[in-house]
Amino acid sequence: MKIIILQKIKSNNVLAFFLSVFFLVVLVENCYAQPTGAGQNTIRVTGTVTSAIDGAILPGVSIVVEGTTTGTVTDMDGTYSIEVPENATLVFSYLGFALQKIAVGGRNSINVLMVESAEALDELVVTALGIRREEKSLGYSVGKIASEELSKVVHENILTSMAGKVTGVTINSTGGTGSTVSMVIRGATSMSTDNQPLFVIDGVPMTSSVNNVGGFGSGNLVDYGNSISDIDPESIESISILKGPSAAALYGTRAGNGVVLITTKKANQRGGMKVEVVSNTVFDIPSKYLDVQNRFGFGARSYTDKTFANGVIPPYNVSEVAGAGPELNKGYWQVQPFAPLDANGAAIPTELIAYPDNYKNFINRSAITSTNSISISSVTDLVNYRLGISNMTNKGLVPNSDLNRNNLTLSATSEMRKGFTVSTDINYTQNWADNRPATQERGANPLQWAAWTPPNVDIRQL
């Protein structure tokens, strides 16, 4: 019996010894182990993300360092910049495209081609004349946008809200607040036309041509935007984008550049009157400012201390305002615009100094778009209706370029008798704006004049 007990004790000692060694090794490793990412060299990775379908740039692509919350998105030019560890893995994701994981491997430049997702969707889509068919049964590609996607971030133009949500669709703005927004499906097909698709709202075709009116100066047109931008985003139920020549056969030659089918909201729920109130606010900030020179003031001649020993330069000539004159911040003095006057009414020379933030001081630091809407809908045995009213106010980045828009939409259906139904859709839009954007630079472009303002003139005094 004693021998057995002794053997057990020895066995227990051996087990305790190995356990002690194991925990000691673990403790030593924990003492010398470094947290993940600590001590790693970081590098800045830049690149461009484009579509493998047509080479179009992709703004808004999400880029995240795998296993972390560090990330960024591509800008309007499809470019990105992010600081990551040398051995990190970047995850690229974009709606309608396959997820991509790319190892950095110490590279500073990584350009990515996004491949369209091959996942099949068996949802029903709207085709011509409101016919609903299963997408896989169609002989052409269809892109879909639900109302929830449009209302997440509401812009002053419905086309701007669609940017980055459908593959193969390029959306560009031609100017500032209220200007025309162009939409091209699968690249331009003509050099003589605007390549715009055909828009069909509840079965009614609608053109989206540029609405230009002669303005300031000869040949300088004012951009009043396109009619499709007047649509209230809150009244849209869904958008289907028909791509390819087969889709054009549904609407004829007008649909040669594709078709955008817009279905508005209807009353579809029983149970009494339904009231819906929606309010949202969107802030826009400039992503980049124009680089301008701030070294020389206006004038056509350079001046030195040898020419004017007292440092006072003769008054500027109006005809020389656009030139490059004396160097600024060198102690020179000159009678300048908005110069103070002495007791006799004569202008007093002031020091020639630069105002490097003129361009930033001219542009509003943020643009605000506020949208408020209310809708009333009801479904009864006699009539189904939906009435919506919305107001949108937009304060643009350019001063005094505010845009206001009121929308009223009415959709009603009544069964007069069995087999005889009457329906109506009414869309009314009223908008007004200050200083619509110009399509050329002939004296009506405020950003042009802001860039041309001499750097020795404080633009805040203009």
Percentage beta strand = 25-35%
The number of distinct helices, counting runs of at least 4 residues, comes to 6
Question: Strand count, sense and closure of the main sheet?
Answer: 5 strands, mixed
Termini gap: 108 Å
Coarse shape: globular
What ranges have pLDDT less than 50 throughout 5 or more consecutive residues? 1-39
Class based on secondary structure composition and strand pairing: mainly beta
Give a description of the structure.
This protein has 462 residues and is mostly beta strands. The protein is 12% helix and 35% strand. Among the domains are: 73 residues, Immunoglobulin-like (Sandwich); 141 residues, Ferric Hydroxamate Uptake Protein, Chain A, domain 1 (Beta Complex), CATH 2.170.130.10; 56 residues, no CATH class. The N terminus is likely disordered. Strand 24 and strand 25 form a beta hairpin. It has a five-stranded mixed sheet.
Short description:
This protein has 462 residues and is mostly beta strands. The protein has helices at residues 2-32, 147-152, 158-161, 245-248, 358-362, 446-452; strands spanning 42-51, 62-65, 71-73, 79-85, 89-93, 100-103, 112-114, 124-126, 132-134, 142-146, 169-173, 181-185, 198-201, 204-206, 210-214, 221-226, 236-242, 259-264, 274-284, 312-313, 333-334, 350-351, 367-379, 383-395, 403-417, 420-433. The protein contains 6 helices and 26 strands.
